[in-house]
Amino acid sequence: VQSPIPWRDLLRFRQVWALALARLLEEPVLWIGIFWLPKYAVDVRGLSILHAGWLLTAPFLALDAGYVSGGWISTRLAKRGWTMQRSKLAVMTVAALLMVSSIPAAQSGSAPAFFAWISVSMFGHGAWFTNMLTMPADIAPRGMVASVYGIAALGGGLGGMICTEATGIVVDRF
Q1: How far, in whole angstroms, is CA 10 from its chain's centroid?
Q2: Each residue of 52-66: pLDDT tens digit?
């Protein structure tokens, strides 16, 4: 049995910082989707609340599909002989590239095109996040997985709060 490491000592490990930083940078994708997409659809795209509601189901269904397929694909790659680390990183790399599709979403002229691009981005978020959630178990001693997860989640929460506040400032000013 391994003796527990005080959680503050976990901050000495760069892998723990990497997980927290990754979530700090990535998690705002979901927070913007939850808190700002409905307002954007109505105020900027000019959709009725009802029409926006129907179109907003697509990004969240894509998010759910990303959650499921991100784990499924990394497991399939591992069963084909890839190391679990390599399979997770491959899925996360592709998923991160998919999240960039929010850029063409901003440039799209129609609401359906906008929501299609945002759905691709949300799918990427789901696939990325599923694999990220399992990483603390890959890097931490068995008795410290929850603490490493908590530190990483703190990074995600901070990123989401900062981005949500920054988005509000930008919306108010522009």
Answers
A1: 23
A2: 999 999 999 999 999
- Whether 116 contacts 57, CB under 8 Å: no
| pLDDT at residue number 94 | 97
Give the model confidence (pLDDT) of 139-160 as tens digits: 888 888 999 999 999 999 999 9
Q: What is the pLDDT of residue 33?
A: 85
Question: How far is residue 127's CA from residue 174's CA, in Å, rounded to a whole number?
Answer: 33
User: Could you tell me the pTM of the whole model?
Assistant: 0.87
One-letter-per-residue 3-state SS of 97-112: HHHCCHHHHHHCCCHH
Q: For residue 144, what is the DSSP state?
A: G
Q: Compute φ and ψ for 124, nearest 5 degrees.
A: -60, -45
Which residues, given as ranges, of the chain have pLDDT below 50?
none
Single out the residue of 150, 10, 11, 124 nearest to residue 62, CA to CA: 124
- By the 8 A CB rule, do 77 and 87 touch? yes
Round to whole Å and give the CA distance between 113 and 122.
Answer: 14
d(CA 159, CA 45): 26
C-beta separation of 143 from 2 below 8 A: yes
Q: ∠ CA 28-50-47 to the nearest 5 degrees?
A: 70
